[in-house]
Amino acid sequence: MLAKRIIPCLDVRDGRVVKGTRFLNLRDAGDPVEMAAFYNSEGADELVFLDITASVEKRQAIVDVVEKTADAVFIPLTVGGGIDSVEFMQKLLNAGADKISLNTAALKYPGLIREGAEQFGSQCIVVAIDAKRSTQKNKSDENMQWEVYSHGGRKTTGRSVIEWAIEAEKLGAGEILLTSMDADGTLEGYDNELLSKVVDAVEIPVIASGGAGNLDHLYEALTSGKAHAVLAASILHYGTYSIKEIKDYLSSKGLPVRPVSS
Amino acid sequence: MATIVIVDSECANLSSIYKAVKKVSLDPMISGEPEVIAEAQAIIFPGVGSFAHAASLVARKNISRALLEVIASGKPFLGICLGMQLLFSKSEESSLTRNDEPAKGLNEIKGEVKRFPPGLPVPHVGWNRVKPVYNDQLFEGLTGGAYFYFTHSYYASPLQKDRVLGLTEYGFSFTSAVKKENLFGVQFHPEKSGPAGLRLLANFGKIIADQR
Fold this sequence. Notes:
The complex is a heterodimer of chains A (about 260) and B (about 210). Chain A is of the alpha/beta class. In chain A, about 35% of the residues lie in helices and about 25% in strands.
């Protein structure tokens, strides 16, 4: 049985982790390489670095972070945030990234998904979708229940989440990373209705993101939401739960997980 | 020349496998030169992407002849992911020319590479267990069904069941590791499979050392 994956997400700006307070036992709480190693030792199944560096000149920092992390951590590494060219994908992959997460650039130019998939394989291309429930006017259209946002959730695109997920799959995406903007940061649970609709619409795996506040939320996303994996930030970074606690809980409820010690 | 060569067929990201092999105290080099490959003491053959594309690259660059030479000489050989699939006779993954002929592999292990049946999420991405069907040095310390990281849409199906070294459940039981004498193939990525993957690579290192 394929195990349900638990994936910590680290926000990195100018080569430093932002967010997260629990790492008092580390020499440097903002060092992404140390945090990656910590989560790896805790049993994380993958890691995601989300680069939120604003200036283009400082983009090299994330490449260095990936390179150092890949020297020490032997689980899949995904990098996202501002990636808009095959050349930059290549640079990150050479540094040791395994997957590239595309968001705004793919919305502007969907061909980027195909170019990346053709050059590096579909397993390499994750399409991240920021989804928000539509306002009343669109609700009559079944497919417009959730709308895609770009630019880190700041701009509406007028596109349907379901349709964009299907298009991304056709273009060669290997996975969908689906964030509910309504749920994100609320700690009130994932948007499981959204999740299950997207899972039903595509064949490729869907990673749930946004809203985890307790262990049941994770369980629900993986069962009623049908997600293949869960991304978690706050509940891990603030030390609410350890990955072992999460996996023990899911396992006790009958879900397959990779044991932390293996 | 006592060297482990990681084959560069231009269809894989080699930094991860290079780093992981280094981590288990082996000293690999990366090369796509047929002469270097033929001279190697052992071969690691990684690959991702499309079977037809990789098969044509390997054939065009004369790498396939060097690989077959190494295999025939009985040197330890480890194919990873697409590198395992390329050991098989053919794949039903559509060829570059879009004709209906299945793309041909190295034919070292008889059998076909097939698409996962409909109804299963594809690609098969994530951690799944590999159960060795018999005791082998490659899985020393990993006999209980350790989890390894997979990402693939096609699976290999050997004609001869005695080539099967490991099995994995995904809706049905598929072959996730093969062996023919010193020729090994694994569908998963040991370089991305945490401690279990590093252990498997270290075991492969021991197999190489035993040849000396």
